[in-house]
Every structure is written in C-alpha cells, then in structure tokens.
Amino acid sequence: MELVLLLFIFVLAAFLGFELIQKVPSQLHTPLMSGSNAISGITIVGAIVAAGHVEGGLGQWLGFAALVLATINVVGGYMVTDRMLGMFKKKGK
Amino acid sequence: MEKAQLINLAYIVASVLFIFGIKMLGSADTARRGNQVSALGMLLAVVATLLAGGFDWTWIIAGLVLGGAIGAIWAKKVQMTGMPELVALFNGFGGIASLLVGWAEEAHYEGGEAMPAVTSVAIGLAVLIGGITFTGSLIAYLKLSGKMGGSPTLFPGQKAINALILAAMLVFAGMFVATGQPWTLYAIIGLSLLLGVLGVLPIGGGDMPVVIAFLNSCSGLAASAAGFVINNNVLIVAGCLVGASGLILTVIMCKAMNRTLGNVFFGGFGAASGKSGAAVEGEMKALSTEDAFYVLEAAQSVVFVPGYGMAVAQAQHAVKELAEILENNGAEVRFAIHPVAGRMPGHMNVLLAEADVPYEQLCEMDDVNPTMETVDVAIVIGANDVVNPAAAEDESSPIYGMPIINVHHARNVFALKRGQGAGFSGLVNTLFFRDNCRMIYGDAKETITSLVSQFKD
C-alpha cells in the first residue's frame, strides 16, 4: 500500500509539473531552468538522513559527500538564479 | 501531535511552496519572488528533516557549512557569460548526490536485514539516473566552458556501444534487485558514469540547450528515485516536478530546432555526412567599419541578432551602447532572439539583461520575422545557423525546416564574425553569400566599439 501511495503522488506531481511550465516566455527559460535545478537539490534531505546515521561506516561517508554536493547545488543554484533575476528586475524602473 | 506527523506536514507545506515557486518563475513580474518562495520551501524541508533528530550532528553541520560556502562563493563569483556551464555543473552535483544517497542506503543495509524489493529497485534507478546526470553534466560543463572542443566527438560503433552499456546496466539492475549483491550495484554505478560521458560526447555545442534542459530533467528524476529509496514524499514531489518541467523545456528546445530528442542524442549533428546542402554561388563580401557606420547612420530601423559569438566576445555592453546611440539617432532598435541562440535556453536574454537592454526591445523570432522587409540593417553578432536561409529554402540542407530569423529579407545585413569558418553544424551559411549581406570580420566587441566611437566623433 505504501508503494502505491508514493507512486500515486509521483504521477500527480508529474502532471502538475507539465501543467506548470506551459507557456513560459523564452526570456525566462534560463532562470526557470536554473531555479528548478536548485529544487532538484532536494536530494539534500536524503543526504542529511544518510550523513546523520549514527553507526558510521561507508554509508556515512557517502552520505557526507552527498550532503556537501547537494548543498552546493541548493545554495549555489538559488543564489545564481536570484542574481540572474535581479538583472531582469532592474529594467523595470 | 507526533513529531513524525509534524515533519510530514512541513513537507507538504514545502511541496506547496515549490509548486508556487515554479509557477511564479514562469512570469517576468513574479519570477524573482518565485525563486525566493521555492528557496523558502527548501529551507523548510531541510529544517523539518533536521527536527527528526537522532543524527550525528558533526557530519551534518560540517556538510551543510562546507557545501553552502562553496555554492555561495561560486554563485557570487561567476560572470554572466559563465552562467551556462555553472548551471550544468550544479546540475551534475545534484545528480551525483542522488547517486550517493542511493549507494549510502545500500551500504546501510549491508550485512543487516534483507532489503525490500521496492527499495532495491529505487536504489538502482537513483544510481543509474544520477550517474548519467553527473558525468553527462560534467562533459556539458567542459564543452560549455571551452575546456573541451564544442564539436561532436564520434567514433565507429558508438550507438551500438551505448545500447550495449544500457542493456548491461539493466541486466545488472535486475541482478541487484534479485540478489542484493553489492558488486552489481558498483557495476551499475560504473556503467552509468560511463554512459553519461559517451552519451554527451557526440553532441555538438549548438545542441547544448537541449542537453542541459534534458539533464536538468534527469537530476529531478534521480532525486525522485532517491525519494522512493528513503520513503520521503517531499523528495518524490519536488524531484518529479523538476523532472516534468525539465522535459517540457527539452521539448520546447527541440521544437525550436525542428528536431526530435532522439535526433539530438543519436544524430551526431554536424559530423553527419551525406547531406551537405546545395552548393553556394557568389562570394562573401567584406565591409569596413567605416562604411558600416555610414549605412547605420542613415538607418531608420535596426535589428540586432545576437548569438553565441556575442557571449564569447563579451560584447553585450558594447552592443547596448551602440543600440542606445542608434536610438538617439532616430532609428528604431530591436533585438531578435532565437529560442536556441547561445548555449542554454534563454542565454541571450540573460546577457542582454545584464547589459541593461530595455525589456521592450527584446523580440521573439515570430514577432520580428513578419516585419523583416522594413528593416534597414540587421546586425548579426556571432549567430550563424539560426539565420541560415538554407533552413527555409534548401530542402537538401540538414537543417531544412528549422525555424530561423529571416534576416535575409532585411535591406542590409551586417554579419559580425571572427573568420570565415562555418557554424557549429559545419554548414556553409548561404546568408553570407547574399547580395544584401556584408561581412565585418574581427572580434565582435572591437567592431561594435569602433562603430560606437565613430558615432561619437
């Protein structure tokens, strides 16, 4: 049952994702990609769980590496997107 | 309320914030806020995860601080022209992180209880997709940053080898699910990393917008698979949103080039032989910047068509200055932007925004083309294939059918180019041989700057 529920969520999210992105003006393609790239860093949550295993060992090392890389993805991704969008904004004045 | 329930509620809120964030990213007025909303969602998801407690905190804090510092420094330091490769690199990190999460979970099970089948399937997928995303993005990064040549690298039997690797991977994945042997997982890791390299190597620089969008989609799917590994909703939802939206972008990019995804990945464009298009008659006629100045001074309507060459020459600020001068001189100035100009989706828009080019002057291809006959001068800056009339007229051309900006209909065309070479596709651009086209050779930035200084004198 658990699996079916997760798959259910997955399928709905897929349709939602398709619907959300229709008709985006082309000048926003780069920020959109870079912003959604930052969201894909959500794997940081899995990395935290893996890095935080108290029993140590290989899994913890792998988790730590995952955590560093995912954090780079998240922090860098959001900041770069913000910088880009900041430039778009300026012209509004 | 139990803590576990509270955490899950926080995950729901985070998912909603991601959805709103992506939605808002789709419109110019709300885009920046949208990004911040989605960042807030990410923060919430991280905090909620940490709330669960029972962790070895040293590792977590060290990882967050280290990764955060590296990411922040890179994001601050990167030049706008270096944006495509940085996004590619970040994307690769997301992919490898998902691979490592899957692997760590496997290591966690080792020697202990048996792994449920669902978990092993999910681990296999997270590792497989994450690995391809990682090395694929790395190759894209190397190509975009110029550390590796942008042309397609082809070798005999490439498709067969890639197909073989894919098949072997699926076999190992089956064995991993059936036996749970760690070495089968290591085999998947190795093969997926290899496939990422071999898959992106044959793709030329001009197809990079498609590849980046596709890899972006993959990194989302890898995260989603990692979500199935650890039974985590927010990973599944956020990863899947990215996967779906990335796929849409990929399709948009493909349409802009009139090609299918399969063609991009297996076409080895540019190195393909056979179809080379009809022979071209005439010659390329060079023009000095002095003569170009006289034409521009009299022009009433000017359209700039930027391409990757403008990014390479870092000419966007000079271009903006010239545009301003032309406008003060009484001309109507517009920028015509092809959807796949540059090396990532919307690349030119970012560069021109950096140079403060007014939003109203940026036009999409379909808006500019019908008015092209009334344009006095079209200035092509380092764009090539997106203005090649062969795409519209020569059925034997490999790019026939690709939508282009019809600069050949303008009264005059100035093509700024470093040399006489062909574009990424290796095709001869028939535009350059037309009667209304003049070549201005040299570095685009120097050419524009020289035009600007002549206006000032």
Tell me what the structure shows:
The complex is a heterodimer of chains A (93) and B (457). Chain A is 77% helix and 0% strand. Chain A contains 4 helices and no strands. Chain A is flat and about 50 Å long. Chain A starts with a helix and ends with a helix. Chain B has a 6-stranded parallel sheet. Chain B folds into 2 domains: 78-267, no CATH class; 289-456, TPP-binding domain (Rossmann fold, 3-Layer(aba) Sandwich). In chain B, strand 4, helix 16 and strand 5 form a beta-alpha-beta unit. Chain B has 457 residues and is of the alpha/beta class. At the A-B interface, helix 1, helix 2, helix 3 and helix 4 of A face helix 1, helix 2, helix 3, helix 4 and helix 8 of B.
Describe the protein's topology.
The complex is a heterodimer of chains A (93) and B (457).
Chain A: H1 2-21, H2 29-39, H3 44-51, H4 58-90
Helix pairs in contact in A: 2-4, 3-4
Chain B: H1 3-25, H2 31-51, H3 57-77, H4 83-109, H5 117-144, H6 158-179, H7 182-200, H8 208-229, H9 233-256, H10 261-267, H11 289-298, E1 301-306, H12 308-313, H13 316-328, E2 332-337, H14 347-354, E3 362-364, H15 365-368, E4 377-381, H16 390-393, E5 412-417, E6 437-441, H17 444-456
Parallel strand pairs in B: 1-2, 1-4, 2-3, 4-5, 5-6
Helix pairs in contact in B: 1-2, 1-9, 4-5, 4-8, 5-6, 5-7, 5-8, 6-7, 8-9, 11-17, 13-17
